[in-house]
Amino acid sequence: MPAMEKTNQSQIRPKSFTYKTRTEWSEGRSGSLLGDGKPPIRFSSPPEFNGETGVWTPEDLFVAAVETCHMMTFVSFAARRHLQLISYQSHTNGVLEFVDGEYRFTRIVIFPTITVPKSMDEQEVKVVVQDAHKHCLVVNSIASIVEVNPTIIQA
User: Fold this and answer.
1) Could you state, in order of their start, the residue ranges of all structural domains in the chain?
2) Which of the residues 22, 24, 87, 130 could staple to 34 if both were Cys, CB 3.0 to 4.6 A apart?
């Protein structure tokens, strides 16, 4: 969701941001992802592409970017609507397939489990999930199909 700068009540001006990262090759098919003021993330090609087992891969980070962006957008929209959350957890499946001579992610499915108080209207939570999906900047920046299949628990 892009940040907006209010100039007055009727005008909103979009802002622009630049995010910078760096990579450093270490050996074989491995390296580190770096960002100013952030801890490095060691990454490798996935084992199925001759990389290391147990190390983050670009594929993991791609799927994680979709999942974490959706969660942050949901939490932001829920706060705006004063929707009380007890918990939010999710898992995500990204399907990488060989299509037209290239590997690409064809589908990403997010499975959030959202716990809210019993008194909360489940439909209101579903609306916030849909809004988060519609406005998630990472989802809006990729060509893959992204689905969200929430489980809402009223506790």
Assistant:
1) 4-49, 58-154
2) 22
Task: Count helices and strands (H / E) in the chain.
Answer: 2, 9
Angle between helices 58-80 and 122-135 (to 10 degrees): 130
CA distance 72 to 61: 16
Count Cα atoms within 13 angstroms, Cβ side, for 77.
21
Question: φ, ψ for residue 18 (rounded to 5)?
Answer: -120, 130
Whole-angstrom Cα distance, residue 49 to residue 57?
10
What CATH class does 58-154 carry?
alpha beta
pTM: 0.87
DSSP 8-state symbol, 100: T
DSSP state of 78: H
Question: How far from 2 is each of 15, 64, 137, 148, CA to CA, in Å?
Answer: 7, 20, 8, 21
Could you tell me if 113 and 125 are in contact, meaning their C-beta atoms sit under 8 angstroms apart?
A: no
* Segment 69-93, tens digit of pLDDT: 999 999 999 999 999 999 999 999 9
